[in-house]
Amino acid sequence: MKKTKNLILSLCVAGTLLSTMTSQSLAKTQEELTPGETAYVDVSVSTQWTTNGRFQVRDIDAPSLSNPVDPRQWSANMEDTEVRRWLTSYLETQAVYGTKVTILEESGDWVKVAVDGQPTPRNSLGYPGWMPKRQLTTDDRLENYKNTPFIMVSSQTAWLYDGKALNDKFMEISFNTRLPVVKDFGDVVMVATPDDGNKFIKKEDVAVYQNENQFPKATPENLINTAKKFLGLRYLWAGVSGFGFDCSGFTYSLFKSYGITIPRDSGPQSKNGKEVKKDEIQPGDLLFFASNNGTGSVHHVAMYIGNGLMIQAPNAARSVEIIPLNTPGYIEEFSGARRYWEE
């Protein structure tokens, strides 16, 4: 059954979940998921929460909890910095359309999952967090395409369409979304989706790979050019998509787009890769910042781009930006650098 693109939302009562959903969403909510089972993200970007969400979500978070989601409306609802900063206490990470997750726990309409491909010392299966069950599908059709060509969205976001003529928009998906190629028509590519059959996407918005060995080399120039695509994109705590990044979600996603998987969070990112001395930092290296004048816990990461500058997703009040490394408030907390790019 085709999902309706008209969100049917109701007011959250005392911060509870939506009580009105599309008929398909309701059916997915009722589906039983058991620990150890795998499922796939069935919305453009799912958000993983610290708990099962029923007691902390706000009315304005409704666009992030439905199926389909509306990440642009959710962001617009949080124009106020303090409203956006509130998320810091409640979100874990995000996962883009088609991402595989492993079910860890179930609680009513919510499930705790481990997000595949997001390394963390917290769980060997992937980054853990709670999400609405309605945003997952257990249809494993993507497994049938594991060894086939695939697309990776290279634009900030891109539209999937219902027909080859690209007249009927289906879903706006994020940078780094990976979907199997069914047929390449030249300017348009037909792709398989987790639970909605085949859709079409403009080739100008994607990179097409025959296999994972075809990822381009993660050179400093390539990394920097990719990072600059997101200048001006508003920060989002836990964000890993073209709809919004947090600091480590930004650096994680940059390397992911070149087939390199690094830890999801800044702390583990600062302990992996190749250590780089301060006087040997090169463009493409990750820069880390820690409390207690750089001697405490790492809490921020940026990427060096040369000429004393770095690019970063800073905080809830700002957007992806380029600033000098020696900016007051940053340089005092500089704690080291790591290299993940290919020399």
TrEMBL record:
Q: Which residues cross the membrane?
A: none
Annotated NlpC/P60 domain ranges read 217-341
Which range is the signal sequence, renumbered to this chain? 1-27
Ordered alphabetically, the record's keywords are: Hydrolase, Protease, Signal, Thiol protease
- Is Hydrolase tagged as a keyword? yes
> Cross-referenced Gene3D superfamilies, in alphabetical order?
endopeptidase domain like (from Nostoc punctiforme) (3.90.1720.10), SH3 Domains (2.30.30.40)
By sequence similarity, the record places it as follows: Belongs to the peptidase C40 family.
Q: Report the protein name in the record.
A: Peptidase P60
- Which taxonomic lineage does the organism of this UniProt entry have? Bacteria, Bacillati, Bacillota, Bacilli, Bacillales
